[in-house]
Amino acid sequence: MNQLKQIDYIIFLLYFIGVSSYGYWIYKQKQKTKLDTKDFFLAEGSLTWWAIGASLIASNISAEQFIGMSGNGFTFGVAVAAYEWLAAVALIIVAIWFMPIYLKNHIYTMPQFLKTRYNETVSLIMAIFWLFLYVFVNLTSILFLGALAISSLVGADLFHPIVIGLSIFALIITLGGMKVIGYTDVIQVVVLVIGGLVTSYIALTLVSQKFGLGNDVLAGFSAMMGDAEDHFHLIFEKPGPNTPQVEVNKYLTVPGITMYFAGQWIVNLNYWGCNQYITQRALGADLKTARTGILFAAMIKLFMPLIVMLPGIAAYVLYKNGSLQNEMAPGGKLLADNAYSAILSFLPTGLKGLSMAALTAAIVASLAGKANSISTIFTLDIYHKYIKKEATETQLVWTGRVTILVAMLMAIGLTWEDALGVGSEGGFTFIQKYTGYLSPGIFAVFLLGFFWKRTTGAAAVVGILMGFAMAILFNHFAPEWFGHETILYTAFRNAEGVYEIPFLVSMGWAFVFTVLTMVLISLAGPAINPKAFEIDSRMFRLAPSTTAMVAIIFMLLTVLYVRFW
């Protein structure tokens, strides 16, 4: 049965027309001048700090957060907020230490960084890796989860038409270039925050009503904390021999204190600091603007669990107490990723349209940003270098547009019947897990390239390939090979007696061994590396206003961790 009424569709239509019209206006304004690659891919440095910050959040918060993280909130609780809160710290690190190096060396793409710092081989390998990752994991999973969520909200089997609709909407925005994406993202992030807050408000009201406390949101939150006390701890204990499999699965995804030693930092620093999809927003700006925008995004990040995770915990409490049975378990099978849509089904008429607009905003912003990054890497780092070196600026821009179209068509094909199995693992976990095969090697290459002059091109090539190989080793073979009583104490037997290592811990081990190998290879190479970046401590100095922003973020983060540890 269709859950949306006419007013809901009107609200959604107004949102669609508003965003599309604004994007078209920006595009037509830019058409008055000749569009070149720096303008198309980097917005020609014209994004303001608030546009950069909003665009970072809009591109990051998508279906995997709204749907996948709400699903993880249903299953794990507040522990999954570590991804969001540590992201704020990662953004501070990127703003202070990574961004000055990129901007001083005029870096526009991540493969360009690798070529400048190392060599063409490293750049080409990583360009290909990134293209596969962005198309086959990120773009596909965002499209699949988004279409699934909106189809559930509409209350009809419209999955395939919605896949097409989301793709077309994203193409309208993406084909205008990064400036259109950046400024439409400001609207998108306002819509998704307002819609997300409304959903969280309704979720807490439903909990309050369930416990006979009226419509008191604060009373609903207190009741939720009391009824689901186990869902309000950041740290899970390591499973013992007789731990039920459901608890083992929680630890495998959010492995207690061990994930804070490496895995979470690799995930966040690689994503926010070594990822074309994210850094592209700031690479065209001056340092002060880029830093302020990134720190603005860090502040917003602290509050994102309220929007993307809290509805999942509320759905758990309601389901546990007899509500949402049909919504959470259609056909009798419990699906945690249904949590967000289950809460949305209780929104009053009109607000459902706003929430669908918020969800669509998150999905489309991420699709547009990801497609633009795919286009940037292919056009500038593969097509222009290896296919048509004499291509004009106009030809490169059109190549970028064609690449966007091709990438979106590939994602539609993979999404059509969930060819990659996104739905079987939970969307958020799917993305984190499979991105984790590349993250250790990539982050090791970037980190050593930034701050250790001796790191050689040969070490970088080995590091990229070894990081991938080590991730496979620790995820699939090391648990059984080495077992519980060795240095790999992070392995443990699950309820079926099989040794396992959580994927975040596996990432940590892969990173450690990759760094050690790269250091040894580099020490065996030349003592002087002419491609090393010159580091000047003055690059990392902060303005008083920037220092104040950093201090506020750390104070808020401390309060959150003390409360939920």
UniProtKB/TrEMBL annotation:
Domain of life, per lineage: Bacteria
Gene Ontology molecular-function annotations: D-glucose:sodium symporter activity
Membrane topology qualifier: Multi-pass membrane protein
Keyword tRNA-binding attached: no
UniProt keyword terms in alphabetical order: Membrane, Transmembrane, Transmembrane helix
Any matching Pfam family: SSF
Entry GO terms, CC: plasma membrane
UniProt main location, coarse: membrane
Regions annotated as coiled coil: none
Entries under Gene3D superfamilies matching the protein: Sodium/glucose cotransporter
TM segment ranges: 6-27, 39-62, 82-103, 124-152, 158-177, 189-208, 251-272, 293-319, 339-368, 396-414, 434-452, 459-478, 498-521, 542-562
InterPro entries: Na/Glc_symporter_sf, Na/solute_symporter
The keyword Disulfide bond is assigned to this record: no
UniProt-annotated location(s): Membrane
Similarity-based family: Belongs to the sodium:solute symporter (SSF) (TC 2.A.21) family.
Protein name per Swiss-Prot or TrEMBL: Sodium/solute symporter
Organism encoding this protein: Spirosoma validum
